[in-house]
Design brief:
The chain has about 300 residues and is α/β, with parallel strands linked by helices. The chain has one domain: Alpha-Beta Complex (Spore Coat Polysaccharide Biosynthesis Protein SpsA, Chain A). It has eleven helices and 13 strands. Bound molecules: uridine 5'-triphosphate (UTP).
């Protein structure tokens, strides 16, 4: 297997995306008791629509949502709403009408249920019959990149070259590594593409092999399903995707990572969610100028 994955694709490029969204979202309780965090609005679109949009822009128009108890409304979001469309048409609100239609046409949405939140690995395992014997992408449902960001496309291209596992990493301050999955890596000769030699969940700061943490985008070969089946519950009693990936890596599957250095919106907890909201709202043509002026006034005011 080439260490410098420049050659043309040797394997089929993934065409399906799996979005695990059956977790309990404890970092956002009590808001998530009845409303899935995936449906929290970032301005006027739910988080999940940004994620499905990211998949669709990378060529993944077949999106399987892994849902769970109390999460059916996530699937409803992608239904057609002729009543709402007719009302917008009657009002002449064509901009919003186009936005509603876009959300319905982004991708083909499928759903399957994870009956109990037994871990991310278990959630991905639920996708086996839908995905079949082909590579696929996993997009965690609480983080997304800016519109038009090439990360996922680059990961899909790289996976089509290697046939293995492709991950995405960000660099974090060393004090934070013990909260995340951390990778040990070697250079490949291509800037910001690394070969992964090890993965460890939540290491102590002094034992962390790097400050590169795994973020919520994965491109996986179908052999991951068998590895998940063989994986015993690990940290927190959950079936961990990391453990299944390490099993494949130890069996010789190549694992590469792309180091990501642009904006990543992390909407899985209140601070990151608010940052995403403010950042994206202030970029909007309609409300952005007024919001930015208000923010400036607000932070400079004595009330803060
Ligand atoms: P997290 O570990 O972030 O868990 O899961 P969570 O439930 O979303 O949130 P916290 O940490 O309790 O606040 C990462 C992703 O995997 C999904 C989650 O929905 C999230 O998209 N997941 C996790 C499942 O689908 N099933 C599980 O059993 C666990």
């Amino acid at each position: 297997m080439s260490e410098q994955p420049h050659h043309p694709s040797a394997h089929p490029r993934a065409v399906k995306a799996v979005v695990p969204a059956a977790g309990l979202a404890t970092r956002f309780l009590p808001a998530t008791k009845a409303v899935p965090k995936e449906l929290f609005p970032v301005v006027d679109k739910p988080v999940l629509e940004y994620i499905v949009g990211e998949a669709a822009s990378a060529g993944l128009k077949d999106v399987l949502l892994i849902t769970g108890k109390g999460k059916t409304s996530m699937v409803d979001h992608f239904d057609r709403r002729p009543d709402a469309e007719a009302r917008l048409e009657a009002k002449g609100d064509l901009v919003r009408l186009a936005a509603v239609r876009r959300s319905e046409e982004l991708a083909d949405i499928y759903a399957c249920r994870q009956h109990e939140p037994l871990g991310l690995g278990h959630a991905v395992g639920c996708a086996e019959s839908h995905v079949g014997n082909q590579p696929f992408a996993v997009l965690l449902a609480d983080e997304f990149t800016d519109e038009g960001d090439p990360l996922l496309s680059q990961m899909l291209d790289l996976q089509a070259q290697t046939g293995g596992i492709v991950l995405a990493f960000i660099e974090v301050p060393w004090e934070e590594v013990s909260r995340y999955g951390v990778a040990s890596v070697e250079p490949t000769g291509t800037e910001d593409v690394v070969r992964v030699t090890g993965l460890v969940e939540k290491p102590a700061r002094d034992e962390a092999p790097s400050n590169l943490i795994v973020v919520g985008r994965y491109v996986l070969p179908p052999t991951i399903f068998e590895a998940i089946r063989k994986t015993e519950p690990g940290a927190g009693g959950e079936i961990q995707l990391t453990d299944a990936m390490v099993r494949l890596m130890n069996e010789g599957t190549p694992v590469h990572g792309i180091i990501f250095r642009r904006i990543r919106h992390d909407t899985g907890q209140p601070l990151g969610y608010l940052q995403a909201l403010v950042r994206l709202a202030s970029q909007r043509e309609d409300i952005g100028p007024e919001l930015r002026a208000w923010l400036k006034e607000f932070v400079e005011s004595e009330l803060v």
